[in-house]
Design brief:
single chain; 278 residues; alpha/beta; Rossmann fold; 23% strand; UspA; Universal_stress_UspA; Rossmann-like_a/b/a_fold; Universal stress protein
Length: 278
């Protein structure tokens, strides 16, 4: 049974992410954890030292969080009934990042699926701050869902890679299961530096070819054109899912730290899965 964590701030974008999870894994036995975190507007010493009830506040924040989670759970069960799915709600007084990391470990979470923007996401920002932090820190795969994404099955998957990492089956289990369930094709795009592949890279590529079997197609693109190449490929091949391995050598790191990315315009208009390098 898959265990999937679904953070929500009750925004439209977070609902789109939850809907995506329910539909992508509709044929899979899953437990979905609906997670909402809350923090009081002002942390008073009394709030920290005592329970809110003891100082006469009543836990308004927790009650509101649980109430909205229960409404959301009810809505999902009515709109997307599925005997293979179980929905559990979790409400926590914590930062979103810390709670995701703690829940991932305590509940043996296989995957986190979340929106890229919060309720007040700015259009010019690639990912919201929370999403970036979760992608960087998570020890399990994370799928980020862009705003206004209309669900389509992940039939065409783009997988940019530099072949600098080994591709153990365990690391790519979720990707391989999605490929199997949806009869997907994986387009492995190698970011070429202009030099031939090293022996290690050749070994890693062969490993990836064996894992994907007949479901993989392989391409070469120049390193200095990777962002344009990904954008172009998404448009031409009608890509439904973008997948990368979190690796210090890849341009994935640059997406979050280089202002130039905003100028170039890296367009993520499909779900984006990041697999941790662990």
């Amino acid at each position: 049974m898959k265990r999937i964590l679904l953070p929500t701030d009750f925004s439209d974008n977070s609902f789109e992410a939850i809907r995506y999870a329910l539909l992508v894994f509709k044929e899979v036995e899953c437990t979905f954890y609906l997670l909402n975190t809350y923090t009081p507007p002002v942390y008073s010493p009394e709030y920290v030292l005592f329970s809110p009830g003891q100082i006469g506040l009543g836990d308004i924040f927790r009650e509101n969080s649980i109430s909205q989670l229960e409404k959301l759970k009810s809505r999902l069960e009515k709109q997307y009934p599925n005997q293979k799915h179980k929905i559990v709600i979790r409400s926590a007084l914590n930062s979103l990042l810390n709670e995701i990391l703690e829940t991932t470990e305590s509940q043996n979470i296989d995957l986190v699926i979340m929106g890229t923007k919060g309720a007040t996401g700015a259009k010019e920002i690639l990912f919201g701050t929370n999403t970036v932090h979760v992608i960087k820190k998570s020890k399990c795969p994370v799928v980020a869902i862009p705003p206004h994404f209309e669900y389509v099955p992940p039939k065409e998957i783009l997988f940019p890679t530099d072949y600098e990492v080994s591709y153990e089956k365990k690391k790519l289990t979720l990707l391989l299961e999605i490929v199997e369930h949806h009869k997907s094709t994986v387009h492995a795009m190698h970011v070429s530096t202009g030099y031939g592949l090293s022996d290690e890279q050749k070994k890693n590529r062969k490993q990836l070819e064996q894992l994907l079997g007949g479901k993989g197609l392989f391409y070469e693109v120049p390193n200095n054109e990777i962002i344009a190449a990904v954008n172009d490929f998404q448009a031409k091949a009608n890509v439904n899912l973008l997948v990368m391995i979190q690796n210090k050598h890849t341009f994935l790191e640059r997406l979050f730290i280089e202002p130039i990315i905003k100028k170039i315009g890296f367009h993520v208009n499909v779900p984006f899965m990041v697999v941790p390098q662990v």
